[in-house]
Amino acid sequence: MTKPPKSKPLLRDADKPVRSRPRKPRDPTQPNLPLDPMPARIEPCLALLKSKPPKGREWVYEIKWDGYRLAVHIEPTGVRILTRGGHDWTPRFPTIEQAAKQLPVATAILDGEAVVLDEQGRSDFGLLQQSLGGRGGTKTSRNSVLFAFDLLYFDGHDLTRMDLSERRHILEDLMEGATGAIRISEEIDADGGQLLASACEHGLEGIIAKRRDAPYRSGRAGDWLKIKCLQSDSFFVVGYEKSGAARGQIGSLLLAARTGNDLVYVGSVGAGFKERDVLELRNMMDKITRKTPALEYNGQRKAVVWLQPTLIAEIEYRAWTDDGKLRHASYKGLREVQDNAAVCEIE
């Protein structure tokens, strides 16, 4: 059984605890509202990447989870679990489906992140992919947990026009005491800089900043911001360099980002691979080889096998070099087509 996340050290410093704001009791005299039709799908609100946390009392923070974004639809006919791209992955998350059925609500849409936790309680993207059978796999993940961070629809009412603070109030009531496959992503009322430093110290991916008074708006409207301890983005795999000494003969992967309608070479990655990654990659890459590169390439690498730009890899890196290449890159895994991952765009 996966251990619960060890979040307590993150919520306090040497002097005083940092906690979520206390919830106010719900008003029993609140009038009943007319019912809203339940939407088949809501495009997710996405976070803009920033280098530093914003300042001001209008911002509140959460831990950034490293997994797959999911929307859990609880309906009278059952539960649907949709990926960010709108694909139905209900059969792949049976424990989350069962946990959703146990929630005390007739209709709801939860917004959250499905993760697999390591022994330290940190989300691990590689472990999640392994539990699903890798990219294109068909396994069911029975050790994944959904950390719910928003509630978009509740008991016949559309909540997207409400402020985040109001949506969180209802979500916290709904999720009170939940410790199974669906848990609440804790809201942390703290100094953003201190929280980011603490998150990085504990080996987490970063933090999310959200405006308290913002409605739920689809796309990257700037109401949500993400600040990472290490940078990571998604890139096309456009080729690989052969190596007779490496497992699967893969010395490194050649990566590309978008620039307008074209692709641009941004360097390679030769670190972070596990044995199962190499075998999976080689099996897929052998099916998409091509004779010429899919972009302009002036590099000096030898024994390069060029590929159709269909595989999208999640890459962690420290910085960009002056000539537009990734520095200290490390492979994290392949993104699913259904996850609708956005490939990094550069000028």
TrEMBL record:
Chain segments annotated as coiled-coil in the UniProt record: none
Enzyme Commission (EC) number: 6.5.1.1
UniProt entry tagged with the keyword Ligase: yes
Stored PROSITE patterns: DNA_LIGASE_A3
Keyword Ligase: yes
Domain ATP-dependent DNA ligase family profile per the UniProt entry, residue ranges: 146-259
Origin: domain of life: Bacteria
Catalytic activity: ATP + (deoxyribonucleotide)n-3'-hydroxyl + 5'-phospho-(deoxyribonucleotide)m = (deoxyribonucleotide)n+m + AMP + diphosphate
Protein name: DNA ligase (ATP)
Originating organism: Rhizobium ruizarguesonis
